[in-house]
C-alpha cells in the first residue's frame, strides 16, 4: 500500500504570520492516514516544526555538500536538524533559476538521504517538449539522471509537474496525467523491481485546486499532489487533502 501524500510548496511566500495557516489547516484535516506536508521558506522551518500538529514540514531545496563555503545555501543536515522530514529537490523553478542539472539533483538526493530526509523529486516537461511529442522521453531522462540507485518508499517521493501547468491554471487532461504516471510507475518497477518500484508514491503537481483535485486523484498511479498556490491558505488546501483522503 502506497501512502497518500498532500504536499504544499509555499515557494518564496510567507513570513512568520503565515504560520497561522498551519493552525487553521490542522483544525480542518480529515484525520486518517493521509500524510500532509508543508514546505515553507527556509527561515520558517524551525517555527513551522514547532507549530505544526499532524503536519510534516519540508524544505524546498538543500545543498549537495555536507557543509562549507556555499554562501546562502542550506545543507540537508541543517534541514533535518530543524525537525523537517522532507525536502523538495529538482523543482523546475530551481532547474530554471539556478541552472540545476539532473546530476546536481542526484547529488542533492544523496545528501538528503544521508541526513535521513525523504526527498520529493520533481520532474516535468516544458510546453515545447510536450508539443514536440517528447514528454515521456524528457521525463524518462530526468528520472534516470536525477534519481540515484538507493531510492525506495522510505526515502523518495516522485512528483510529476509539467512546467506549463505550474501557476498557469492549465491542467493536463486526466488521460495525459495517467499516461505520465503509468510511465513513471513502469520505469520505477523496471529499474527497482516490482516491490520497490510499486511502493514509491507518485504525486501530480501543477495548478491543483479544490475544484480539480478529486478528478486527478482518480488516476491509479496518482498517490497525491504537490500544490503551490492553493497550499498558501488552509481554506484552499484543506479541501484538497479531504479529496485525497476520500479517493
Ligand atoms: O510548482 C508547484 C508545486 O511545486 C505547483 O504550483 P501551482 O500549484 O501554483 O501551479
TrEMBL record:
Localization of this protein: Cytoplasm
Keywords, sorted A to Z: Cytoplasm, Gluconeogenesis, Glycolysis, Isomerase
Main localisation: cytoplasm
Top EC category: isomerase
Annotated transmembrane regions: none
Binding site for substrate: 9-11, 167, 207, 228-229
EC number of this enzyme: 5.3.1.1
PROSITE patterns (alphabetical): TIM_1, TIM_2
CDD domains: TIM
Catalytic activity: D-glyceraldehyde 3-phosphate = dihydroxyacetone phosphate; L-erythrulose 1-phosphate = D-erythrulose 4-phosphate
Gene3D superfamilies: Aldolase class I (3.20.20.70)
Catalytic residues (positions): 91, 161
UniProt-listed Pfam families: TIM (PF00121)
GO molecular function, one term: triose-phosphate isomerase activity
Pathway the protein contributes to: Carbohydrate degradation; glycolysis; D-glyceraldehyde 3-phosphate from glycerone phosphate: step 1/1; Carbohydrate biosynthesis; gluconeogenesis; Carbohydrate metabolism; erythritol degradation
InterPro entries linked to this entry: Aldolase_TIM (IPR013785), TIM_sf (IPR035990), TrioseP_Isoase_bac/euk (IPR022896), Triosephosphate_isomerase (IPR000652), Triosephosphate_isomerase_AS (IPR020861)
Subunit comment: Homodimer.
UniProt cross-references to NCBIfam families, sorted A to Z: tim (TIGR00419)
Family under the similarity heading: Belongs to the triosephosphate isomerase family.
Its biological purpose: Involved in the gluconeogenesis. Catalyzes stereospecifically the conversion of dihydroxyacetone phosphate (DHAP) to D-glyceraldehyde-3-phosphate (G3P).
HAMAP family: TIM_B
PANTHER family: TRIOSEPHOSPHATE ISOMERASE (PTHR21139:SF42)
Official protein name in the record: Triosephosphate isomerase
